[in-house]
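Q: Second attempt. The first request was missing the SMILES, so the protein and zinc ion are both included now.
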Amino acid sequence: MLYIGVDIGGMSVKAGIVDEKGNILFKDTAVTDAKAPAEKIVSDIAELVRSVAERGGVSLSDIGGVGVGSPGSVDDAAGVVRYSCNINFVKTPVAGMLAEALGVGRVRISNDANCAALGETVFGAGRGAKNSVTVTLGTGVGTGIVVDGRLLTGNRSAGAEGGHVIIKAGGEKCGCGKRGCFEAYASATALIRRTARASVRHPESLLARLVAERGIDGKTAFIAAKAGDKTAKRVVAEYIRYVGIGLVGFANVFYPEVFIIGGGISKEGDALILPLRDFVRRNAYGAEFNPPIDVVAASLGNDAGIIGAAALAMGD
Ligand SMILES: [Zn+2]
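A: Got both inputs this time. The predicted holo structure:
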């Protein structure tokens, strides 16, 4: 059986034909007009799906279903996108509209972070795991939780927002308006802020020189730390400790088999993953008696959204 996964973004929509093993057989992208009326956006998505099916040599009447990952707050069971900062959906019944436009009976939708988590768990870095927490370290921090092979999303899918678990009372201001959220310490944005502060405090450091020469991004502190710079090593160690504190909190509630770390920062590989794994194994409650928790880097890259959305359509 074949499925179609759709990954909606603020700039573009991706759709792909995915087989039961999570392989993408054919995919394409279309530009999103994020400010257009919702009906127009959905009809553009339907057009992309039709075109992908046709060029991939599949009839829509033969596919097992269509899965959709959307930014914003999604009511999975109702198939409704409640709102999104990135695209003009307000209480839009996207799943039903697509089902009607495509003549496909089975259309499933979830938040894009949840879809990526499901894709990584079923077909990516967590393959074989039934319980996982996927943490995406990007501009913000997204989390997706899989328990017994299914997404855990809370009442009307309003939960699983691990980025806004408070890890430090009265701490750094978060994009959500609260203080001390995990996201305010573990996002690439937070790492960049810490890098900037440290380079001002230690103008003699290699870190400060790199910042002056090439500007700051999420890689700067890791590059200088690898070259042996003490200031950068401290920035990286503190950052990893905060990410670890968040993971340990999730471990104590969900005790997953695996944490899957995605987003731009996950490209640092072992320099990030190994100390995190060590931190989680030392600090999770009962870890010396319980099965070890693995921490791995996500492996599906930009395809996680398409594959995860298809995996959503494969579920029951
Ligand atoms: Zn927050």
